[in-house]
Amino acid sequence: MKEEMETEKAQREAEFLQQREEASKELTDGFTGLNAGLEALQNLMNEQKQCCEEKKALNEQRWAEKEKRWSKKDGDRDEMFVLLKRIDEMVNECREEQKAAKEEAAGKPGPEEIIEQLKQQNLEQRELLQSLSESHRVFLAQSRPGTFHEELVRLDTFAVPHVVAQLHLLVLGSVSSAHRVRNITCAGDVTAKFMSDIHNMPFMSYRIKIRERSVNLITSQVHPTILATKNS
Question: Which pLDDT value is given to residue 226?
Fold first, then answer.
């Protein structure tokens, strides 16, 4: 009986030890799995932390680039505002200059008035020259008939063609190059100078006859050329 009890006791102890070892093994395996899970979780957390840091650095870089672009856009906008302000000032200056030019031009005679003044001056000169020519012709015819005839022949043969040709070249050359109306005054100055040169000729009959021919030339050719230049 005692042996059976000892055997049963030993058997129970062996079963207890076996159960204890199995429980310890299961507990160890559980801790091992838990440690592995915790390690995996730690690794995952480290990866997520590194990814967050990379994203943060990338976002900071992008933000810096955006701020740089915004700053550049602000500078460009300021420059554009300055440029637009300058353009507006230039436009206003041009308007003021045009307004001043119109006001100044309003007080000056126009091309038609200048041409009419030239016509009137030429008409007055022509009438004066005709009167002087008739008076001198009567004087020469009464005092020296032969000399009067000889001077007219010499005048028609030599002096008149040469002087009228020179006047034609000077006046019409100036007018043909006058692509603007203000050159009409230049043509009138050339004509006046040449008239002054003619006035200094030695013989009275030459002066009268040549000035008369010059007036006819100006009236018949210069004015149509001025009008043609003005209309072109």
Answer: 43
